[in-house]
User: Fold these one by one.
Assistant:
Number 1:
Amino acid sequence: MVTTCLIMAGGKGERFWPKSRTHLPKQFLNISGNKSMIQQCIARLQKFIPIDQIFVITNELYAEIIKVQVPTLPQDNIIIETIGRNTAPCVGLASLIIEGKFPDSNMIVLPSDHIIKNENEFLTILKTAVEVSGLGDYLVTLGISPTYPETGYGYIESSYESLEINELLVHKVNKFVEKPDAETAEMYLESGNYYWNSGIFVWKTSVIRNYIKLLMPEMHQLLEEMKTLFKVSDRNEVIKSEFHKMPDQSIDYGIMEKAKDIYVIPCVFGWDDVGSWTALERINNLDESGNVIKGNTICIDTKRCIIESNGKLIATLGVEDLIIVETDDVTLICKKEKAQDIKALIKELKVQKLEQYL
């Protein structure tokens, strides 16, 4: 059975503002290393999957960037959404297109903007997930073993029913749970059977299409109509005319929270979703004062700060626990504890009609 992969690359990375912008969001930036996050993602996958079996779904703004950054990716493998409709329609549309090119295939789904430090371990687990998905009508997900009580992630609760495949334990999933408060996250960490939801899934295209039919029948009907239209019309034109009718719903809520026969593989491979500026403390080496500093800076009596200069000198004296980021047209100064709330600034920019800074 052919293994394919769908990379989701349409996000705006708003919590990484002002470096991540509407015209060039996080997945197309060099956050760690000398390649962009999407370039790293595809290079990692190519150790397992040929480039012509890798698909990227994005929006019209970013299709040209992908063509430039990943010129070896077949252009027909770039699926263009005309409007954002969350991950369930994204997966549904892509499964339809992939199934048309590679019938009866396995399908890996993952975001474009994650850091994975141990690629060999990641690929070993991914291959095992593909193997598990082939054992039956199973949905498989990778659960990240939590290292601290994170409140910004959804969690997966595993049961004690498990398989052993390739010397890896594969647990039956009890349920997916929403982002917890601090006390609940602490309980999840201590329990030992809760995992961070990585947003990485593996299934057969036929299986996910059947689940969409069962659990999201209205979306299934729209997909069937699009499938018929694809045979007689240009794919992009069909998407333009039909995709806006899709529900705005996540794959977690639409399918994973309701489906049966879901398995989770616990993972430790140096994963980080780089969801906000504080992620830089986890993926970079800290200086002796606990800082992450990049660019033209002078820092005296500066502790536990994240500072990034784009050229102008940033000078700090006697400050702690701040995020300071300078770009060509914006300077952000933020308490680290507010890193998850940067979207509030995006909202205010929209209110004040300052779109040039988005």
Number 2:
Amino acid sequence: MSPRFSSLEICAGAGGQALGLEAAGFDPVLLLDDDPHACGTLSTNRPHWRILRADLKDFVGTEHSGVADVDLLSGGLPSAPFAVAGRQRGAADDRDLLRAAIFLAMDVRPRAIMLESTPNLLTNPRFADARSFVGEELSHMGYRWDYRVLDARDFGVPQTRRSGIIVALLPSDFDRFVWPVGGRSAPTVGEVLRVSMGSRGWPDAESWALSADQVAPTIVGGSKRHGGADLGPTGTKRAWLTLGVDGSGLGDQVPGSEFVLAPELGREGLPKLTVDQVKRLQALPDDWWISGRKTPAYRQVAQALPPPVAEAVGRSLAAAFA
């Protein structure tokens, strides 16, 4: 039997990263998030997980049993402070939790660290100071670190979704760490959603699926400060149109027998996706229940790290512990 390892997850959200790490051999001693809907999602799907609703900036890990010296500190940090849509204010944005995550590592001293955020944090010259802060503090703690931008479609997820991943390990473990190389073929939107689109008797479901012959564009979740339950900014909505999807909002249910597919009418003649369908495009399990009404449920799903990406990195980390 493969060994199991312990993890502390921050900014846990809907649990995409935790699910992937669970499959890779990591069992959380505690999962932290400040959103009540996310905490509801996690506690409903995994009643045995220990969930804490709290602000990361106020969290002191060593005040909680089982947290000190955990094998892995993991989490998906808010992307808005480093994203174009979030005005790229970095550490000046009160939503930035990068420093809080590094300070938590000082407190907890995990064997390894895995933090996910927007690739912009790792590649944009504007955030060189943030990367320097991370590198200097991790080095002071005795870690070696690296980062990589991984695309979910390379790990079988039906979506072009680039995630920036930071890993840090103790030197002896770091020497054994190898970044996962994705090689799985990702299905198209039509292949993934064909059955669900026809589940209410929509006669055009098959022809729609044949035309939705590419992977999805990046699913954008918006933030609590702005944006609603739609599939993203103007450019992203145009990409959805080419796949035969009205990205201006989300549907409450899939098309029924009365709906007529009419691409020539623009978005009015195209179906909208439901939250459950977006969940499938994020590679979350069908039985993974999401708390909240449509908008908060969609945000949780859209902001998740697809489990196959987390699992791939987690397996590389676990192998480095051998």
